Amino acid sequence: MNVLRVGQELGQRGYRFVWLISDSQPSSRTLAETRRFDNLEVIEYKAPQDEKFTQGGLSRDPMESIKTLVADQQRAARGLFNDKAALQKLKDLGVELLLKDGAFAPASLLADLLEVPSVDVVPIPVLLPWFSARYSIPQPVAYLPSLGAPFTPNMTLLQRVINLLASWAYQLLVMRPMGAALGDLAAELNMTFPESRTAAGVSPTAAIIAVTDWAFEFPFPIPPKLHMVGPVLASNAKPLPQELSFFLSSGMSNGNKAVYVSMGTLTAMFEPELRSMALGLSALPNPVLWKLPSSDLPGNLSLTDLPLGPNIRTVDWASQNDILGHPSVGAFVTQGGINSMHEAIFHAVPVVVTGLTADQPMNALKAEHFGFGISLDPARLDPVDKKPIESTIRRILTAPTFKANAIKLQKRMHWTRHPAEKAADIVEKVLLTEGEEHLQTGQHTLRWWQNSLIDVYGVLALMSVAALAMLCLAGCFIWRVMRRLGPRTVHFKQQ
């Protein structure tokens, strides 16, 4: 969606935008139809027929979810590069630049095949060491938490040790296998892929558009080719259908603001968790709008099996940005995807974050750190216990500090130029300069010990030892000379 939104802005500037999607993803096709704009052309490539993509989202186990993601990307890439008709159509259109999802690593191969510069749109927060390894960005592990490390920048010595080990483990167990898998795919497709990029999974992109905002990021230095433009999907709310607006406002006469619940699509919730949420939400006096399509329900569970109270209304789909912008909405219960967090901040709505997988636990930690949300461990959601979710939402709705901090972050996120416009400016500049890498730092040309200056420190240590040894030798020499040249005792013989 982020790429398409940037494409929409480019289309308004007269550029022809071609969106390449898989025919196995009807949601992408629906998105293209509902968000169609002038100068948009959609090309579908054939997904592999003998292999099915993972259904039901990612695993909550970090390593398992990474394996699933890489496997799905590999299958999608094979389908794309084996669809010669789709590739030929791209070439015939005379594509000048590839605007790609930064999370889809095989897209780098497509840029090489088309021989055009590329710009990455990164749909996730700035995570270390993923960003560092993929985009050759400095990694200040001394104060910036690594993915999977539940810390804030104010780390103790022990936490910094754990943070460094977590960063090393991620690079060794995730980034290198991911880069190797990409190299194997290139070899399988008879494509060349530089060894340096294979080893680290480095993207050769001319510019990186991070659709996140400093309002929700821990500050750290960034290189010139990384652009923090802000959330391109957040925008002023549009009016809701009258019936839905009336439901959200139905509790305002008693001072009960509405609660919006949407757990995203990245991973599914278990039946005990859904039952606990249903009990807790039903115990609230507030109207609750819950986006809960039947496709998100595990096994044979149906909506009628859940203990839903009369205050709850379920919908298959909802315009999240417009709902969060409704004045009657007072809290948002979410898994913690980055787009959801940005839209909550944009509309100053406090959040309850479950944080199930990927970047979601880190986003939950940030929500608490910045004071506009509460992290709720999914393990606390018991099928017969309504208290965890009920008490957490009551606290979010009644404690004024959460709303005050949400407003503070909203002000930090304020912009005079929309992020989609800023992103389109960057794409236009890359087109103008024909993708020259004048903003690329030299970090990717160095080994890890060179980037860490370990070799320099080693030379300096040897020089210091050599200088100390020379001083010692000089001191010993002077001492011996002084002993020889010092005053001597003269003995006189008595007559």
Automatic annotation (TrEMBL):
<keyword id="KW-0812">Transmembrane</keyword>
<dbReference type="InterPro" id="IPR050271">
    <property type="entry name" value="UDP-glycosyltransferase"/>
</dbReference>
<protein>
    <submittedName>
        <fullName>Uncharacterized protein</fullName>
    </submittedName>
</protein>
<keyword id="KW-1133">Transmembrane helix</keyword>
<dbReference type="InterPro" id="IPR002213">
    <property type="entry name" value="UDP_glucos_trans"/>
</dbReference>
<dbReference type="GO" id="GO:0008194">
    <property type="term" value="F:UDP-glycosyltransferase activity"/>
</dbReference>
<keyword id="KW-0472">Membrane</keyword>
<keyword id="KW-0808">Transferase</keyword>
<dbReference type="Pfam" id="PF00201">
    <property type="entry name" value="UDPGT"/>
</dbReference>
<keyword id="KW-0328">Glycosyltransferase</keyword>
<feature type="transmembrane region" description="Helical">
    <location>
        <begin position="456"/>
        <end position="479"/>
    </location>
</feature>
